[in-house]
Every structure is written in C-alpha cells, then in structure tokens.
Structure prediction request, 495 residues.
Amino acid sequence: MPPILPDFSSSVKLKYVKLGYQYLVNHILTFLLLPTMAAIVIEVVRRPGQIVDLWQSLHFDLVQILFSSLLIVFVATVYVMSRPRQVFLVDYACFKPPVTCRVPFSTFMEHSTLLNHFDKKSVDFQMRILERSGLGEDTSLPPALHYIPPNPNMEDARAEAELVIFSAMDDLFRKTGLKPKDVDILIVNCSLFSPTPSLSAMVINKYKMRSNIRSFNLSGMGCSAGLISVDLARDLLQVHPNSNAVVVSTEIITPNWYAGNQRSMLLPNCLFRMGGAAILLSNRRRERSRAKYRLVHVVRTHKGADDRAYKCVYEEEDSSGKVGISLSKDLMAIAGEALKSNITTIGPLVLPASEQLLFLFTLIGRKVFNPKWKPYIPDFKQAFEHFCIHAGGRAVIDELEKNLQLSAEHVEASRMTLHRFGNTSSSSLWYELNYIESKGRMKRGDRVWQIAFGSGFKCNSAVWKCNRTIKAPLDGPWSDCIHKYPVHIPEVVKL
Prediction:
C-alpha cells in the first residue's frame, strides 16, 4: 500500500543542516572568541603571581597618563562627532477617504458605460482589468470624478489636494503633539499635479509655518517618490541638528483622468485611487524613546539611462490629442531589472554572513565551474520580518513574492492594501505598514523592508528597525475594517 503522506525526512534534514550552517556562520566570532577568552582566564587563575609581577614592572609617569587620557578623549570625540545622526520615524498618519468617495465596481463600470469618452471595446477592456486587478469594492475616487460627465479642473484638483493633505497633516499633529511652528523641514511629493504656488507652499499657508522653514516640492518622480522624500529628509537631517522633518506623500487623481481609448493609458484609470500620508522624521535625541522606527538604510536605483526604462511609464498625448499615462508592456521586465540592481546594492548591507557566503560561493561556481548552475537567490527573510511592497498592481506583488521566495503572509499587507485602497501611488507603503501594526504584528527589534517602483524607471528601498513593540492603533485607515482582513482575493472577479 503506497504511503498516504510523502516522505518529509530528507527535506527536514536539509532544513536543519541549513539552520545549523546559518547559526555557525552568523556567530563565528563568538565561537572563536569564547575559547580564546577561556584560555586567558585559565592561565590567569593558574599563574596569578606572574600577572602581578608583570603589572608591577610597568612604570607610568604623570605625563604619560595625561597624554594617554587626552588621546583617548580626542579619539572618542572624533568618533562621536563623525558618526551620522540617527533619524527616527516618530509617527505617521494616512488619509482615510470619506464613504462618499467610494467607487464600487458597479459604479465604475456604469459611469464608464454612460460616458461618451469610451467606445465599447474600451469599456470591456476596463472591465477585464478590474476583474483581475485585485482591487476591492471600497476603493475611492475624488468627488470631481463622480460627476457624469466628469469635468476635472484646477479648482477641483486643489480641493482634492487640500482634502487629502490637510486631513493627513491634522492627524499627524494630533497623534504626535507637534505644533506647525516646530516643523523645520517640509517635503511634499506629488508626481502629476504641480500647481503654482506649490503644494508645499499650500501647506505652509494653511498651518502658518515659520518663515525660515526649509520646504521642497517633488514632482514627476512616480510611485517611488515617497522613499526619495525620506532620503532627502535624511540627508537634510544630517546637516541640520535638532530638527523635525515632515514628509507628505500623495497623488492627486482629479486632473489625471484619461478620457480616451488607448489601452495602455486606460490602466491607470482602473488601478489608481485616492490616498496620502504624512510622516514625522526627527534627529532629536529626546524623540528616541517615543519614536516607532529608526531609519537604517535607503537604497535608490535609477535605470533612466536605458531608453526602454525611461519610456515604460510615460505621460503623452494619444492620437486624439488626449493626455494620459502610458504603461509599456515591458514594465514588469524593466521593474525586475531595477529590482535586481537594487537588491545587489542592499544585499551586502542587510543580509547575514551565511547568505552572503552562499551567494558568493554560487557566483564563483558559475564563473569557474559551470555557468549553467542555477543562481542562488538570497533568503531576505533572514534579514527582515516584514515586507512592504508597493501596491502598484497584482502583477507587481505576484512577481516579488515569486522572485524573493516570500510567503503569503509576507505579502499580505501589500495585497490587502491594494484590495482596500487600490494603488495610492507613493503613499501605499504607509497603508501597508499601518496594516501590519493594526494586526499587532510589529515587535521591538523587527526589521521592515519597504520597496517601491516609479517612473524613470526607479526602484527604491528603505530599511527600518522597530524601536518598541507597537500596540494595534484604535484609529487610522484600517480601524473600521481590520477585523475583516485578510480576505480571499480570487484570480478573477466576474462583473
């Protein structure tokens, strides 16, 4: 009679061999130092008289002692002064769209059918995209796009920006107790809506911030602009001590609705939704005790030198003169190349020695012995407890789950964020982080890897380390629905 279950003994043995290898390599210094220290202690116990005689034979005068003390103090001061300032994420807030902005599938498809902008093929194409998108029934679009026909204008775009940004800023000030006058650095990123005065000036005017505030407005940098803003804030906080930096990440949907029939430009209509986040970063030492996270690394990769990568997400006019964002068929392949370059840089910074050695041995083996050897993919689960993958679409999450060999739980935050809020561009990473916190999974010492992709083409990463165990928040974007998640997301939702 054949066995009911497969024989797991070989795989279990391999698992324990790998665990033993990882433990040995990652603690090699401990294993080497312990016998050395033990031998020294034993020698001291066996021959205490020789140690006393050696000490007495040493002669120090006052000048030598003072010089040595001053040298130690000088070296310690230089070391402390040359160290980069630590940057802490004190807290953050995500915009929660009002229920009046909700766009279920039926509403989206009804509006698309009633509008004269789209032909029958375009309506059917959008329906097929929605069915496979991974989005749920609770995503939101700005009020201007709820009209039939929509008539997006500058006033409506500003109204959306004020609703999203001011709501997130108000929540951030409430949660942190920070006063607008205490903000030293302000960075706002929004790719496709760049009015004059800028969005950063709009924030300064609303909250009557100081006249000497250092403000920046980033546009055109795609869905990875949030991590670019974090990187800019980190650099500024290295130069300006005892400072607070507020980063605002959003994408304004109102002026960017595409009303044509070119398929590559219809995808953003189906995927992008309202969202925004405000983040407080600080280098003040007194903030360390209450800060949620410490910024460890930011790694940025730009593939813009390649023409294919540069044009894979491209704003242009279609044959009818209507402006939209065109997404190339090569997008996933280019994203994979950018991710590979980013991983090559971030790997040595975060991976334990065991994974780096395996990668090195495999690389040498491929070069010297057999080029057909399968390349070793480092196990990033050894370096991180949590993953926040940009919720750009179902295909993006699927590819990273497969290529990084992640489990369903590792990509749960990304999938559920896409389902509940849609692609909120640069702010999606913060909805994902809030999901993990709302599930009560974030513990002290946990490491978080945020990965984002953006036009240009860019792949950016940020690594955070949790400062303290975080209790599930009672408010926030997930407060009224976290008990429903995770939900099963079918491959195709028939509309």
Observations:
- The CA atoms of residues 157 and 254 lie 5 Å apart.
- The radius of gyration is 27 Å.
